[in-house]
Amino acid sequence: MSRGGIQGFQKERLSQILAVRRLSQVQLASLVGVSPATVSKWRSGSQAPERDTLERLANVVNVTPEWFTRLPTAKVSLPLFRSNASAHVAARAMLEARIEWAQDIAVALSEFVDFPQLNLPSRKFIDPEEITPEEIEHAACECRDLWRIGRAAVQDLALAVEGAGVILIREETGIAQIEGLSAWSEVLGRPLVLLSADKDNGYRSRFDLAHELGHLVLHRYIPRPTERDRHKLLEQQAHRFAGAFLLPAETFANEIRTPVTLDDLLLLKRRWGVSVGAIVMRLRALKILDGDGAQLLFKRRSARWGAKSEPGDGDRAPERPRLLRRTIDLLVEENVMPLDAIPRHIGLATNDLEMLLGLQEGYFQGKGNVVQLARLRPFPVSTSEPVVTTGSTILPFRFTPKH
Question: Where is the HTH cro/C1-type domain positioned along the sequence (predicted)?
Fold first, then answer.
């Protein structure tokens, strides 16, 4: 079928922006000043907007007109979500589109830098029933060994994950009930993790990241389930991995005094960076507590503090991604690209980039107080053994200007 209008209009981009902005076709049509049938034709590919209409469309959804003509990158793998409720269909679609935007950003930046070599344990399970608790414990230990972080408390999990080659995004999503998602990118050859920043709790955020790490390690080759029980099993396994990674058995168990009290667990919470609730679940997994003992502690916790918060929740700031933010800083510092040219190069609005990249509001207008991180180590840096330094901000990627 012949399609009029602008040449090269990508219908997939329209579907993506509808998901990100959480707009229906009827709502978009009203905003642009066209009929819903016209938007439907754009989306099906049977027709494309005229130039002036495209400019109105781009203005309404806050992207550049040219963005609609960019070939979309290959889709990421279907992410797993903590909530499997059908009520969250639109929210899940929005987050999937956001993580695709993160992939687009990383692809654009990879023209200028080498990201850290991917360094994750490899597991090729195709059925969650294959995965035993012992396998999960072993995978968590192997991950620590690969990253050379021993069995002590991890000081900065976000830094460690980025040092292992994972693209990490943390932004406010407006969907507090979905804490995070992860997916594999074929075009990047590495995974991406998007964490919700809506709950400003450093303890929960660390566990959410470790949970997504569990999905990446254990469930890469397992299709996203539709059955509730199968979905629940994957979530339980990712939870078990997070506990095993953050609270390794051979060192953490030695710090437990019996009988276990909530006051003792509050001290462990601060030391290990894990909530009391997650610690109780770990004690249950390690059989230090039986089911009745864990349930009793949960009841005491709820009676004493309530179900949704614990003492000290505000003591630990959430760990923030650095890799993409530092890459942007480098492009500007090394005069590879002017500050105001970066949004045009990527094609997204400045506020979307600032959110996805963890930049301060107004960064691209030169208004933000940009925090200068430690400069990269002198070239060359070995990529065969990625560096993970939990006490600094040095990341093991090379800055390679394109000539």
Answer: 14-68
